[in-house]
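Supplementary Text 2. Reproducibility record for the structural model of the 152-residue chain.

All settings were left at their defaults, and a single model was retained for analysis rather than an ensemble. We include the record here because the model underlies the residue-level annotations in Supplementary Table 4.
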Amino acid sequence: MQKWAWILILISLLILPGFSPALDCRLGEKYYHQAISETDPKRCIEWLQRSLAVCPNFNAWYMLGLVYKQQGRTDKAIDAFIQAGNKAGPPRAEALALGRKGELLVQKGNLPQGLRALELAKRFHPEPAPPWLEKSLKKTRILSYHAVVSAK
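Retained model, structure tokens:
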């Protein structure tokens, strides 16, 4: 009897750790959906941070970046979009995070880096690119042309 108990304990120790990340991501997904339903940005951020604590993923990082952007917390938004890009699976997702980062870099006055990020995002995003990306890239190109002309 003791032999079977030890075998069951050993098997459970080998198998159960593999289930832990899946359970964590289910909990993270639950927190993410709670954040989506929140109307209060502060509570939304709390739910997203809980989600990211148990299962860091693109969607939660990207949404956190959008909330920070909406609040005017540019540096935190940039950091969140960088993390989203790091967790992105398909190139489309990475392009979205890079484009949002580019928008914020332009807002901070870092025109060359912002323009480069937006151009890369456009290049890597499958057609059609989202309207916000097209609009932001066009606006940034115009700003950069004005900066070059006024520098002469």
